[in-house]
Specification:
about 35% helix, Rossmann fold, alpha/beta, about 10% strand, about 240 residues
């Protein structure tokens, strides 16, 4: 479902799940959407535990807002099964994707910071690109194409380029009373951004969407892992990303 075709959410409590790989901007997007007065601002919450319908009452009780926004990226051990969606009649999904190279640089630094040889190895790059990035994002694209759960596919780069327009469309999709988009956000109340739960870096703490940094494809091994994987290139095209140089 595109931003242009997004429709209003059903009346009543809505459960919105924010889906992504790690290092794809989910903390930023959650902070932006939480600026709407009827959307919750919860710390990272594993919505997958609410796949059991018996957990519905507990799920709805997580916050008083009419729209509960739950975000939890897919982890490495989730590749073949993420996302397992909550059982709820008013469920909506925002599938957030980020282009492969910038994602790879960030994810590699986070995941392999204590294992330097994996940062330099071809295997580490191929795992991040072919197994993790492609494995999770292919499932998100497939989810956006089916009709069972209303799903909005959003590119992180588009959020950076036009945060006001993108968030305005997402508010409409989620059924929020908020009509105007936002480009700034407040720090969370009742919890803090920290690594392992949301993002703990300096950029998120600037409280404003920062412009996209220029991308220079200087990391040869990461670039080769993308360029030599036809399934990865195919998925990039399907997600609307331009061809690599």
């Amino acid at each position: 479902m595109s931003l242009a075709s997004a429709s209003s959410a059903p009346v009543g409590k809505t459960i919105a799940v924010l889906l992504s790989t790690m290092r794809s901007g989910s903390t930023l997007l959650k902070a932006l959407l939480a600026q709407a007065p009827d959307i919750s601002d919860l710390p990272e919450t594993d919505f997958q535990r609410y796949a059991d319908p018996a957990m519905r009452a507990e799920l709805e009780g997580l916050s008083d807002e009419r729209i509960l926004l739950l975000k939890r990226p897919g982890w490495f051990n989730d590749i073949g099964r993420y996302p397992r969606l909550p059982d709820h009649p008013n469920l909506r999904a925002v599938a957030l994707v980020r282009d492969t190279y910038a994602f790879g640089l960030s994810a590699r630094k986070m995941a392999f910071r204590h294992v330097p040889f994996l940062q330099r190895s071809g295997w580490g790059n191929r795992f991040l690109v072919e197994r993790y990035w492609r494995g999770v994002n292919q499932r998100l694209l497939d989810l956006s194409r089916q009709k069972e759960v209303p799903t909005l596919l959003v590119r992180y780069e588009d959020v950076l380029a036009d945060p006001i327009g993108q968030t305005a469309a997402m508010f409409t999709f989620l059924g929020s009373a908020q009509s105007e988009g936002v480009e700034t956000y407040s720090p969370p109340e009742g919890y803090s951004w920290r690594w392992g739960k949301d993002d703990g870096g300096a950029v998120i703490k600037s409280l404003k969407v920062q412009p996209q940094r220029p991308i220079n494809y200087t990391d040869r091994k990461l670039f080769a892992a993308i360029k030599n994987s036809e399934p990865t290139l195919k998925l990039r095209r399907e997600l609307g990303y331009p061809d690599l140089p």
